[in-house]
Amino acid sequence: MNAASPGQTVYVESGSYPATTITHSGTAAAPINIVGAPDYRHGSFHQAWIGYLATGVSLTVSGSSYLNFEDIGVETGPTGTVSVSGSSHITFDNTTFGYGVTLNAPLAVVTGSSQAITIGHSYLTDSHTSAVVVNGGSANTVISTDYLTSTDSVAVSLDDAPGAIVTSNTIRSYCKSGLTLGAADTAAVIENNTFTDSADSCPNGSAPQVSVDPAASPTATEDYNTLAVTGTQPYYAWGGTDYATIAQFAAATGQGSHDTVYKNTYTPVDSANSAAPGESATDLLGNPRIDLASVANTGAGPESYFDRGAYEIVSPLQSAVFLASASQAPTGSPVTFTAKGFTGLADGLSYDFDFGDGTTQTTTNTSLSHTYTQVGTYTATLTVSGVTGVIKKSTLQLAVVPPAPFVAAMSVAAAGTMTAIATNKSTDAWDVTGYTVDFGDGSTPMQAVVSAPSVTYSYKKLGTYTIKITATDSQGNTATTSQQFTTAGSQYTAYGPVRILDTRHGIGGVTTPLGANATLRLKIGGAGAIPANVSAVALNLTVTNPSGTGYITAYPDGQAKPQTSNIDYSPGLTKASSVLVGVGSGSASSGEIDLYNGSAGTVDLIADVTGYFTATTAAGYTPLYPARILDTRSGLGTGGTKSTVGAGNTLTLTVAGADSGSLPASGVSAVALNLTAVNEATGGYVTAYPDGAATRPLASSLDFAAGQTVPNTVIVPVGADGKIDLYNGSGGTIDLIADVQGYFSAASPDAYLPIAPARLYDSRNTGGPLTNGNGPYLQPLGPNPAINGTLSTVAFVYNLTVTQPTGNGFAVVYPGYGPIPQTSNVNFTAGQTNANTAIAQAGVNYAPDNSFTIKFNAPSGTSAQLIVDLFGYFSAE
724-762 burial, b if ≥16 CB within 10 A, otherwise e? Predict the structure, then answer.
């Protein structure tokens, strides 16, 4: 820049440039022009910036004259942004002073007896100190049409600056004066400015907006300014006296007779003195001065319609919104089009409506009606014009269709156990604009919009409800329809235990063992006192007298046989497993389950019912973190007595209040336990049943051979006294262990939803055998599409199978990432395949993540394969 000669123009391309000091000069007839890359947005978005990585002042003009800066940005420097010293006739236009960190030094300093320095159409904002400081005898400085702010100091500070002109600026200060004149600031002019402050956030109020030293006040001119003062401080400090109102100031000094107070109205509009020194023909944004016809001109000078401050109100239009009374309409019906959303002053606006079908109309009215006669899609255009020409264009589309009746329609789908999803499918020639859904349980109907056609609602109780949808169109017409909905979940009713199948004795209508690869259909609904509308059943299923190796799969009748298993068996062994299985609901399979024998040999089957599930309010489920509540080896659950259960004897276990109160003291209708027999002297069985029953039921919950460790998950109805009985049906003593998994009660909210049984995990296909301390972390929601992953699931029903174990051990199931409980779910011995059901609490690590973890506990060197099958889940949604 210092290479430029008078009359030359230096074009600064887009980019960031280092700090610069300019000492060259032009002449009055041939100034040097320094012009940045064009900025079509106008304002503080310059493309050419000076002062990149400055270590001092970003731009220094020293001893120069006749320089014009235009479209330049100057970055914030650590000790200043722009400094002009000992210079004359320097002009800054459309310049941004400061960019980056907030400065602790003035943005612009004019000093050293500089002369005729002009700062116009520029931004000087967010300095902690003054935006502009003029001192050192610098005369005839012009500050015009700028936006100036200071966060902690006087925005414009003049001290020893004779002949200064401050005109048409928007000046904002924070708790300090907007402008101050010192003693040597003679013949100053302060006109057409707007001053604002933030007195409400100042602890002691803010200083006067205009402060003039007594020595400067006799020759100063102050008028046509607008002051926005929100606190109780005076407006002016003039000649040593504070003035609380404009009227007091004008009467005492003869100044400010045309000053106004800004109170969120358009008082600065058409009210400036166009003859004020330094007044510009354009505003800070480059807009011309506009005479708003709707506002009386109260200014002075050749044009009495100039606005005060840095911004000209060129149009009162804040936003132009083009609306139609419908987005779809039938032929032959009028549609109302409206130009809406204008704020502020209504100043000579006109509206050109083009309806897209060849019809147009120009009017000063903001609303028109139009009737389309042909089916089609039309683009309507609104053009808003004012004193500056076209201000805004907006378009909208309208579909025109044949006339048709308004028909309400909806679909309803179940999600989870207690949730309904109602989807609006209403149709009309007019556009459907909204709808309400009444879910029929007394709750407040839910409002919805057509952009979100589905509404999801979770009931508090199971049952059948009438869901009603009322749709509304753009003309205010309504249409209504309703539909019956039954929640998908089921709740538990304690039952028995009661034996409903024993192929050895013809119970259940079957008198022969189940053949190889054969399927037995077992009636559940309507059996005994079980209702016909049963949706799932809790069974203890026992395999005895097997002639070969195999497995049993339980599944709802009418469904395809899944690739899952419930009991794995070997020749000559009796095994039992608890199952929660869905009951067939089709017309040909209503109320039945299927039991498939996956073996080349025959097997006898026994089934004892311990409860059933129906789609009516009964007992919900509450899962618990696995905890041991009985161990006869240690005296846990027996009052501290360490004693086996004798042959033919019954142990009574208190369930109510157990596990340190995790189980309620009352109201428990059934408890889910993993029951394990150990240290058996002889083979036999255990029957679990409610304490207080008139007779011990003919049923078994756990079958074992001498010396085995055998677990089985059981759902045991609880007696009225909160206790259950555990009968030792063997000829010798046994130790018993019981780990609680959850309980059923009328106060529990969670309902059960059986799904088509599905294999969730098989280590034989994923990762290989598991060893001590290892096991999978599983999330059932992801891989199983039968489960709605958006719902809060509290527990899952699994069947766990351990196969190919190389030694003895056990596996434990618990919520994902939780502490490992001192419980077990499947015990295994070398070479044997063992299975058990787990009703496992879902993890809540990720609110909730619905995960669970399985860990093996076995001696070092022992490994086994693990299979996990999923049968259903509990949820309150």
Answer: bbbbbbbebbbbbbbbbbbbbbeebbbbbbbbbbbbbbb
